[in-house]
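User: Please check token order:
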Amino acid sequence: VTNSLSLVDMALWDLRSQHAGTPLWQLLGGHRDKVPAYASLESMPRIEDYVDVVGRAISDGFTAVKLHAFGDPDKDIQLYAHLRRTYPDLTLMHDAECVYSHDDALRVGIALGELGCPWYEAPLPELDLHAYRELSREVSVPIMPAGYAIGDYHQVADALLDPPWSACRSEIASTQGITGLLRLMDLVASAGLNLEPVTYGSAFYAVAGLHIILGRAN
């Protein structure tokens, strides 16, 4: 039902944009006309495979990559340290897919902070907000949620009374489309945070998210 409402909402915004004769990103505020891109890369079996696939991303013009690593804290720290030595100018982010214990998340987070990573995504189970708050206070690297389990406006508002993350993420299909996501972005902005619109495979949602990123400041 939520996905269907999201599609209807997106269609209505598209009609509004066409009626106004203005691209949607400008209708939403026109904050920027381009945005840096990063490559979100799949999991690989060996460090050497990561070196190869990251190298291909760099040759394609990317200056930043987000990895889905092994899920083993020792191997993940070793991987990021190796990639930092191999590609010293590359921006590296880590998506841990919610698999670490608190102690493991802390070890990896300290290492990522030392390596200058701009964010650390989904180190802990998505709904364990208490653990996220503790971790955020213990590491220097910014902490991001996965963004798929907490999408309800009131849930997010309650979480942000004591923010468990450094920024928010939200899956556009679960927010009832562009309208719901804009409402969430206003809420998150009131807490002084950014929100990254995400999608899991649909080009329609990805394009809508891109218009929002271009249109809104946070």
